[in-house]
Amino acid sequence: MAPVDELPASLDLRVGEERRIPLPGLATAGYRWQDTVDGQAGAVEVGWERGFPEGGAPPAAGANAPETVTVRGVQPGDATLRLALRRPWQAGAPPEREHTIAVHVAAGE
Fold first, then answer.
1. What is the model's pTM?
2. 45 in helix, strand or coil?
């Protein structure tokens, strides 16, 4: 999984196109990635895959479960995806890590 500084700062998508982005995790310490979308929120759809794939090799002891965010272009526009790694029970505490992705969605061909 890529460190936060290796994650994309921007995405250019077409309507219907999606991009999967693996995120560095700290699930063993109780952290989970959360998202908010600003700007033209209807331009994108955000989905999550969390945990180890079923049927795969057993994870190493203490391994953090992978988290992958999927960003899908829904309609033309610009949105800002804000990702924050935090413990769900620590509302109001600053995130352990955060990353912002500017997303531009163009009409499909």
1. 0.83
2. strand
